Amino acid sequence: MKKAIIITLLMATGAFVKLPAQPSMDASAAYKAADEILDKMTVEEKALLVRGKDKFFIHGFEDLGIRPVYMSDASMGVNLRNNHPSPEIIDQLDSSTAFPATILLASTFSPGLAYEYAKAIGEECRAGGIDILLGPGLNIYRQSQCTRNFEYFGEDPFLISSMVANYVRGLQSTGTAACLKHFYGNNTEFYRKRSNSLIGERAMNEIYFPGFKAGIDAGAMSVMTSYNLIDGEWAGQSSHVIKDLLRKHLGFEWLVMTDWNSVWDLEKTIKSGQNLEMPGSYDFGTSVMELYASGKITEKDLDDMARPILATSIAMGFWSREKQDKSLLSKYPEHAAVAEKVAEEGIVLLKNRDNILPLDPARNRKILLTGKFVDNIACGYGAAEVSGYGNITLREALENEFGKTIYYIEKPTVADLQDADVVILSAGTEDRESVERSFYLPKEETSFLNYVTGHNSNTVVIVNSGSAIDMSGWNDKAAAIIYGWYGGQAGYKAMADIITGKTNPSGKLPVTLEKSFKDSPAYGYLPKGAQFYKELRNEQLINVYDVNYNEGVLVGYRWYDTKKIEPQYPFGFGLSYTDFSISKPSISSDKLKDGKPVKIKVNVKNTGKMKGAEVVQLYVRENSPSVLRPEKELKGFRKVYLEPGESVDVEFEIDSTDLAFWDDKEHGWKTNPGDYTIMIGNSSRNISFSIPFKKL
To answer: How confident is the model at residue 619, as a pLDDT?
Structure first.
């Protein structure tokens, strides 16, 4: 059966859900209203406004009709802290939904789900009186040892842009402002306040800016600067970063804030184009009013700093609405369902030897459960941590499906392992911000993985982590491998449903899983003597160190494919319990002219016996580039859901902008005429068809 529809994916923007524009007031009107308020404010009030209050608030001024603005972490739900509440917030939230990590959200390859996910989070923010969510985080996954990778959307700027734009629109449809973070170059957590990111102009524009640009174009109302230095200056106090790059180059016109305790010079910060220094309690050795009294800053400097705070608050209606919409508390069951749906669609099946999965609960088999995260929920820690409610552990989820046929042994003997028909082994990492972790698991855990997989050939390994880990020693021995990331409060229920076949896995890797960290384009980025897992709060005690982005635009699969390095598992990869076929593509023209897109159409069919979803991916390559270009670049994707025997036509469009690269000599985008290749497949390493065409 063939669906009588055509699915179009706009290449430049991704698949966006159309919504009424947010905010409700345009920038011109909001800034005019902001100036009227500024005229009524004293210098002392302005000095208070530009620095945070009580860790997560912007100051309010009752006589001016300005009430405090409440901000809260993070990208994957509301991090409940014991914050000092604003007077208008009578009841703080006592629970919030723990959604899957955003890297798992990216694994769904579903921009529509990104919208629903963020909308649900936004509704919980509104129920709790939270005006600004300090997310989404969208720094590029440059290297697997960065412990905040779980907060981000992977390695590919096109995928990130599509997901982030929908996230922003979904969140802000509720009246909650998004905060894009961390701008920019925050790709390591090793002494992040002392790392100096040295990124070339081309890589900056092709790799590290597109996600921010997509979020800005989708209407994001705030941006947070990063902890690290950029070209020798801390991002949060750099006028080049804020005025030249963020505002002028990317066109952002609303609120810019620092990350917490991320700037070192208050005078520089005030003059940099920064609007809000958070949390406002850091000791600079001077105060705003002392700088003003000494003539080092002017009232105009404070006006310029404060104006976007006021304009953003006015445009979003922070002061003109009920602080809390408690009616949204009734939507928590819907939010829990969204969280579970995302987990179902983002968990990635990497290996399934001899179709050992799914496991039929009706069969009387001995299933031994062992490893980590059996009775606790694997998650990432720090600003992004969300406790959730009604959490389901892995043991509970599997016992609900398998009953007494599944049993747990913490340290199984060889006899225990050999007696089991199937072993389910849970492994992984506990990632958290402000430290860096090794790609390689601790020796005792690696030994345990080798031990279990070596003594039972029917071992199913579940990986709980925010990024890649070393699997080289046990990958070939495991019967099945499932990348569960951090699944949130219902992640293990979704995992159990995948193991039993109630849910057909459809997640795809938004990153490349390398065999060895030595294969990584970032290998060698840490300074000599660096230690993993070591956190030093007083980061002034070590010298600033440079992080050279020598790989340029060759990040992720762009590196591995161009350098012919075999990964453990490639970007875009993920297995299903059913089979799909992709037809030979048709192309509207083999010659691309400016202003006239080329259309590519394929038919996707479920040729197996189980309903499922496939992600069709389109990559483009310039055959004879004038500069070094990647072997291929993702320029389109579409997730389709099909019953057995069902098929659907999927149509893509590409135009000249999809072929462009950043010319760092001319400082702009450039598209060369000549020969190109379009590639269609279901991962970066599994290309079904290649189509030549020419750019005139």
So the answer is: 98
Contacts of 4-10 with CB under 8 Å at 24 or more apart are 5/648, 5/649, 6/601, 6/649, 6/651, 7/638, 7/640, 7/648, 7/649, 7/650, 7/651, 8/651, 8/652, 8/653, 9/636, 9/637, 9/638, 9/650, 9/651, 9/652, 9/653, 10/653
* 14 φψ region: left (φ > 0), alpha (ψ -120 to 50), beta (else): left
- Which CATH number applies to 578-695? 2.60.40.10
| Number of other CB atoms surrounding residue 364 within 10 Å | 7
Task: Note whether 302 and 46 are within 8 A (CB).
Answer: yes
Rounded-to-integer distance, Cα 171 and Cα 175, Å: 7
pLDDT, block means (10 residues), the chain with 696 residues: 33 35 78 97 98 95 94 95 65 92 98 98 96 98 98 98 98 98 97 95 98 98 98 98 98 98 96 98 93 98 98 96 95 98 98 98 96 98 96 98 97 98 98 95 97 98 98 98 98 98 98 98 93 67 88 98 98 98 97 93 98 98 98 98 98 97 97 98 98 97
Q: CA 512, CA 467: separation in Å to the nearest integer?
A: 9
- Rounded Cα gap, residues 571 and 468, in angstroms: 12
Active site residues: 259
Q: Residue 317 region, left (φ>0) first, then alpha (ψ -120 to 50), else beta? A: left
Q: Are 650 and 640 in contact (CB under 8 A)?
A: yes
Q: What is the CATH number of domain 334-517?
A: 3.40.50.1700
Find all residues with CB under 8 Å of 451, minimum gap 6, and list them: none
Q: Where in the chain is the domain with CATH 3.40.50.1700?
A: 334-517
Contact 254, 30 (CB under 8 A): no
Q: What is the DSSP letter of 389?
A: S
The amino acid that residue 402 corresponds to is F
